[in-house]
Amino acid sequence: MMTGIADSAAGLDLSQYDEEQVRLMSEMCILVDENDRAVGAASKKQCHLMENINKGTLHRAFSVFLFNSKNELLLQQRASEKITFPECYTNTCCSHPLATPDELEERDQLGVKRAAQRKLEHELGIRPEQVPLDKFQYLTRIHYVAPSDGMWGEHEIDYILFVRADVDLAVNENEVKSTRYVSMDQLKTLIAEADQTGTKLTPWFKLIDTNFLYKWWARLDDLDALVDRDTIHRLL
Questions:
Q1: Contact 151, 26 (CB under 8 A)
Q2: Dihedral pair phi/psi, residue 128, rounded to 5°
Q3: Per-residue pLDDT, 2
Q4: Around 66, how many Cα atoms within 13 Å sit in the side-chain half-sphere?
Q5: Does pTM surpass 0.85?
Q6: CA–CA separation, 197 vs 156, rounded Å?
Q7: How far is CA 139 from the centre of its chain?
Q8: What is d(CA 51, CA 48) in angstroms, rounded to the nearest whole number?
Q9: Does residue 224 lie in a domain region?
Q10: In terms of residue numbers, what domain contains 71?
Q11: Is-contact 65 162, C-beta < 8 A?
């Protein structure tokens, strides 16, 4: 039976945040246990409050890495309006499947892939026909926790999805401050120099970069051999 969590922050004052980003905080995410079994639903706000994270609240998420025909990775810089991790550089698109029948479907990770397609269009204006569901390659899952500030944070089981496509961008400036394509060497330089240049990176992107990204990137033509459907990597 799907359950939720008590809205202990129902009266939380969010007036200092962007109106559209506050509206999105009402979306219903999928609560999971540590084995990624769906156990309920809660608002995005409830899932991202450190008060609840510290009590064990865990939700399902995804991270998309989109590569063009030159094998360059599309990065985004999160908008200043974002409530969590504003202005941080990260992979192409990071978000959450919602607690709806279409995005709860677990067969072949279809629910997560539908959510990824939806958010690529919402954040970057990438049309669904440019990233059809059967072009998403699921690789594995990571479980991590990361504070954003004193109030907000992340505690997710994150599905890693790769997709190769040449796409047209129409950036939603309320979501994304900037975009850029990078080669593998360019990304390594960006990350190595991040502290020196003041470049902020999302914690999940740093974890994926450190533990997995380059071995996958080097084998974009042979990703099937690297798929790990069963493991949830605990990067806690």
A1: no
A2: -55, -35
A3: 45
A4: 26
A5: yes
A6: 29
A7: 14
A8: 9
A9: yes
A10: 19-234
A11: yes
Amino acid at 226: L
Contact 84, 48 (CB under 8 A): yes
Under a CB-based contact definition with an 8 Å cutoff, are residues 189 and 209 in contact? no
Using the 8-state DSSP alphabet, how is residue 162 labeled?
Answer: E
Q: Which helix (DSSP H) or strand (DSSP E) does residue 145 occupy?
A: strand 137-147
Question: What would the pLDDT profile of 40-95 be if each residue is shown by its tens digit?
Answer: 999 999 999 999 999 999 999 999 999 999 999 999 999 999 999 999 999 999 99
Indicate whether 6 belongs to any domain: no
Cβ-Cβ contacts under 8 Å for 113 (sequence gap 6 or more): 133, 136, 138, 161
Q: Over 90: is that where the pLDDT of 150 sits?
A: no
Residue in the structure block whose two tokens are 């995410």: 29
- The answer to whether residue 11 is domain-embedded is no
From CA 26, how far away is CA 46, in angstroms rounded?
Answer: 9
Our count of domains for the chain comes to 1
**Beta carbons within 10 angstroms of residue 121's beta carbon:** 17
**Per-residue model confidence (pLDDT) at position 225:** 94
Q: Are strands 153-164 and 59-67 parallel, antiparallel or unpaired?
A: parallel
Structure tokens at 51: 């008060």
Per-residue pLDDT band at 135 (split at 50, 70, 90) = very high
Residues annotated catalytic, as ranges: 94, 156
* Residue in the structure block whose two tokens are 């990065």: 75
Closest alpha carbon to 215 in 227, 203, 230: 227
Helix, strand or coil for residue 20? helix
**Tell me, what's the pLDDT at 1?**
37
Q: Is residue 7 one of the residues assigned to a domain?
A: no
Instruction: List Cβ neighbours of 7 (8 Å cut-off, separation of 6 or more).
Output: 43, 46
Q: What does the block give as tokens for 66?
A: 């989109």
